[in-house]
Write a structure and sequence with these properties.
51% of the residues lie in helices and 8% in strands. The chain contains 5 helices and 2 strands; from the N terminus they run βαααααβ. Helix 2 crosses helix 3. The longest helix has 11 residues. The mean pLDDT is 93.
Length: 76
């Protein structure tokens, strides 16, 4: 599972989604999905723009967390 820390990062900087949309040109819907951790996919240019705007690295924005339930290995 991938955890997105956008809400925490914006809170720490006292920024709103509308601020990020205005300053980066990233679609508001995309930012809202990242903020609420409902995004199923993200374009690399969006991640690049967010890291540049927030002056952070990708590990500050996204974190891999091992899933609670491990998937069984595929059967041959």
């Amino acid at each position: 599972m991938i955890k997105c820390h956008l809400s925490r990062l914006l809170g720490e900087r006292k920024l709103k989604i509308s601020d990020v949309t205005r300053d980066t040109g990233i679609n508001r819907g995309t930012l809202t999905r990242l903020y609420h951790e409902t995004a199923e996919r993200v374009e690399l240019d969006v991640l690049d723009a967010l890291c540049t705007y927030l002056n952070c690295g990708l590990p500050d924005l996204l974190e891999y967390q091992k899933s609670e339930q491990a998937s069984p290995p595929p059967t041959p």
